[in-house]
Specification:
The protein is built from 26 helices and 30 strands. With 798 residues, the protein is an alpha/beta fold. Helix 5 crosses helix 9, helix 15 crosses helix 17 and helix 25 crosses helix 26. The protein binds iron/sulfur cluster. Iron/sulfur cluster (SF4) binds next to helix 8. Belongs to the aconitase/IPM isomerase family. Its cofactor is [4Fe-4S] cluster.
Length: 798
């Protein structure tokens, strides 16, 4: 599309591509003490030798398997027996010892409240807390930060006091977004890390396995309890060719999301390989790994590369790079030649086009060349209302320098952003470096507003007064675009794209504009962008910025520290343990009433909304008031409407409260991929808090299914998905066969549900459970934490 009829095209000199690859890596950062951040390679290699002894001789391992299996507590127990000759992936439960835990401020509250119930003096592995999700974007970095610190003071005080008490590194508000900080400080090739956030896989950009979990899983690692994971299948993605022009690593994952859909990665690790991998920057790989969460993948990883080595040096972690080089020489940080994948997808980077994904789901992928047609066919808005770049997905130095190259071109053509153009730096390191190198000035000179180093609009912390309740379209370089996620408006359509495409489109304000082919009209004639260019690493090194945000490394626990929770607080509440749902910890579940049947997509955002509710993350009674408030009731097609036994209609949480008051156990029937999205354990805690005992689904998202088990709710899968509509609200449902499974006298995975209709008719529905032996104990004790606490007490009294 040409926006002007003039044939004169203004082209601007743009910066030559300056790749850092092959040059000495600049670092202005002092070399860090890497003792606590270097993976324990000798131990991992030794475990891997034991693994090879257990597996059939000559077994070839993928990189993902090497990292996972080298973290096994007991290879014989997890892989031996039938596992030695049988199938492991998708079948066996692995008992793992993660190396590290990272927690963001919203999810850390409940993780720490749970950790406190175990009464241990310190954490078993290094851990960090990152204050990023509670900073609301409104006017700009400084004022937003000051206001948000004031508004969330009691939460930050609580987190800081817990960090001090247990020896956790505490990253203050303003320090940056958890995943960017982890990549810059803690990620290392071959490491196994848990993070209480679904985009934890971002750290996979450094050739490790970083897995998003709920707080209860984090507590496993923090208490040195075996962390259990069903051995994932491995999807291999072979990259060939080279990215061209406007195509970026973001476009690769947007394209792959379109191929795999939001369910395609469930129960799988995505492992990239092939000649196209080493050419990608480390931060570009992190973007790809970050959005692996959007296809439901357990995590994503890449073989150790020269770009990873350079990134480690540039961020002051030369000793980690040296240790990784040694481990790589022993074959640890790449797949064995001939290793097999469960599925292989090949992508030729040379043919990859920029993509825009959405609206309302990250897997609706449209190539840029067809986007205008897509919008017009669907009658979607074609006027852009806001452009947002940054977030943990895309705020690397490379992203910012390439975006600045577009802004420079626009500025020279006399253009300014036509719409609000918001930039979220991922960390203080990035912000300070971008400022030092003049990129921030460039962006501000074309109308950008630089926000605080925090999640901001990406997590709904965006005070947006315009377009309330209106259909409108925004472009973001974020990773997720479910309804109402960014500004609370169900009608805002968020299309995900690379920061380069978002920025270029901000200057046209028109979503029909294709910056790779079209021109923008200017007083000097039509102006056409040249493809962006930039630096992978800052040419004169990173600038650390304000060091007061950062913690001192490996702080010593201070057991005398008082945990800061006021009994009057509406934000924080000491957690009371749940009781068991089983009589004497045995038998079948008591008969339950079906409270409702949830229809269609039900993400953790639907089950426990974010946005304004984030402030109650540490207060279970208060946050539970949002339970399933955007879910659709299949029986009346209404949002947030449930019918109580007496026929009265109310909101879903209010109806749940009535059941709780009557002490009446209840269950839910839900649809496919229930609980996809953020690793939000509140989505399991809240139904449990109101008395939910069982959820039967067409299918579950992995993390959420585990979270339900952790909180003592039994998740069951319909064997025949069409049985979904055989259970309706007010039916009385009992389990059959569960008692034998709980007692260990049956190895069957079948649980039959006896469903008694209000009419007296009885139907039977076959379901399947996925409980491991430990998970059976969690159910028996009422929650995983009850079980961990009981075991710890048993050990200390022995
Ligand atoms: Fe924050 Fe958004 Fe990244 Fe989540 S996806 S960590 S909300 S920036």
């Amino acid at each position: 599309m040409v926006l002007s009829s003039s044939s004169r095209v203004t082209t601007l000199p743009h910066r030559a591509i300056r790749l850092s690859r092959g040059l000495a890596t600049p670092s202005t950062l002092p070399i860090k003490d890497c003792t606590s951040i270097t993976p324990p390679y000798p131990r991992l290699l030794k475990t891997l030798d034991q693994v090879r002894d257990v597996l059939p001789k000559g077994s070839k391992l993928t990189l993902a398997e090497k990292i996972l299996y080298s973290h096994l507590r007991n290879p014989e127990e997890s892989l031996g027996g039938n596992g030695g000759n049988g199938k492991i992936r998708g079948e066996r439960y692995l008992k793992l010892r993660p190396d590290r835990v990272a927690m963001q401020d919203a999810s850390a509250q409940m993780a720490l409240l749970q950790f406190m119930t175990c009464r241990l003096p310190s954490c078993a592995v290094p851990a960090s807390i990152h204050c990023d999700h509670l900073i609301q974007a409104q006017t700009g970095a400084e004022s937003d930060l000051t206001r948000s610190i004031e508004a969330n003071k009691e939460v930050f005080d609580f987190l800081e006091s817990a960090a001090q008490k247990y020896g956790i590194e505490f990253w203050k508000p303003g320090s940056g977004i958890i995943h960017q900080i982890v990549l810059e400080n803690y990620a290392a090739p071959g490491l196994l890390m848990l993070g209480t956030d679904s985009h934890t896989p971002n750290a996979g950009g450094l050739g490790m396995l970083a897995i998003g979990v709920g707080g209860a899983d984090a507590v496993d690692a923090l208490t040195d309890t075996p962390w259990e994971l069903k051995a994932p299948l491995i999807t291999g993605v072979k990259l060939t060719g080279q990215l061209q022009g406007w195509a970026t690593p973001k476009d690769l994952i947007l394209h792959l999301a379109g191929k795999l859909t939001v369910r395609g990665g469930t129960g799988r690790i995505i492992e990239y390989f092939g000649p196209g991998v080493p050419a990608q920057s480390c931060t570009g790989l992190a973007t790809i790994a970050n959005m692996g969460a959007e296809v439901g993948a357990t995590t994503s990883t890449f073989p150790y590369s020269d770009n990873m080595r350079q990134y480690l040096h540039a961020t002051g972690r030369g000793p980690v790079a040296q240790a990784a080089d040694e481990a790589a020489k022993q074959g640890f940080l790449s797949a064995d030649e001939g290793a097999e994948y469960d599925e292989v997808i090949e992508i030729n980077l040379s043919e990859l086009e920029p993509h825009l994904n959405g609206p309302f789901t990250p897997d609706l992928a449209t190539p840029l060349s067809s986007f205008s047609n897509f919008l017009n066919t669907n009658k979607y808005p074609t006027t852009l209302s806001s452009a947002l770049i940054g977030s943990c997905t895309n705020s690397s130095y490379e992203d910012m320098s390439r975006v600045a190259s577009i802004a420079e071109q626009a500025k020279a053509a006399g253009l300014k952003s036509k719409v609000p153009f918001l930039v979220t730096p991922g960390s203080e390191l990035i912000r300070a470096t971008v400022e030092k190198d003049g990129l921030q000035d460039t962006l501000e000179s074309v109308g950008a507003t630089v926000l605080a180093n925090a999640c901001g609009p990406c997590i709904g912390q965006w005070k947006r007064d315009e377009h309330k309740g209106e259909d409108n379209a925004i472009l973001t370089s974020f990773n997720r675009n479910f309804k109402a996620r960014n500004d609370g408006n169900l009608k805002t359509m968020n299309f995900l794209a690379s920061p380069e495409i978002v920025t270029a489109m901000a200057f046209s304000g028109d979503l029909n504009f294709n910056p790779t082919t079209d021109s923008i009209s200017t007083p000097n004639g039509p102006f056409k962008f040249q493809p962006p260019s930039g630096d992978r690493l800052p040419p004169t090194g990173y600038s650390a910025g304000d060091l007061s945000y950062a913690p001192s490394p490996s702080p010593t626990p201070k057991p005398e520290t008082e945990i800061a929770i006021s009994p009057e607080s509406t934000r924080l509440e000491i957690l009371e343990p749940f009781g068991t749902n089983f009589a004497d910890g045995k038998g079948e579940l008591p008969q339950m009433t079906c409270l409702m049947r949830v229809k269609g997509k039900c993400t953790t955002d639907h089950i426990s909304a974010a946005g304004a509710w984030l402030k109650y993350k540490g207060h279970l009674s208060n946050i539970s008031e949002n339970t399933l408030m955007t879910a659709v009731n299949d029986e009346n097609n209404q949002i947030n409407k449930a019918i109580d036994i007496d026929g009265s209609e109310d909101t879903i949480p209010k109806t749940m409260q009535k059941y709780k008051k009557r002490n009446e156990p209840w269950m839910l029937v839900v649809d496919d991929n229930y609980g996809e999205g953020s690793a939000r354990e509140h989505a399991a805690l809240q139904p449990r808090f109101y008395g939910g005992a069982m959820i039967v689904a067409r299918s579950f998202a992995r993390i959420h299914e585990t979270n339900l088990k952790k909180q003592g709710i039994l998740p069951l899968w319909f064997i025949d998905k069409s049985d979904y509509s055989k259970i309706s609200s007010h039916d009385k449902v009992s389990t059959q066969g569960l008692a034998d499974i709980m007692a260990g006298t049956s190895t069957s995975d079948i649980v039959v549900l006896r469903v008694e209709k209000p009419s007296g008719e009885v139907v039977e529905v076959k379901t399947r459970h996925t409980l491991s032996a430990d998970q059976i104990e969690w159910l028996r004790f009422g929650s995983a934490l009850n079980y961990i606490g009981a075991k710890a007490r048993e050990t200390s009294s022995a």
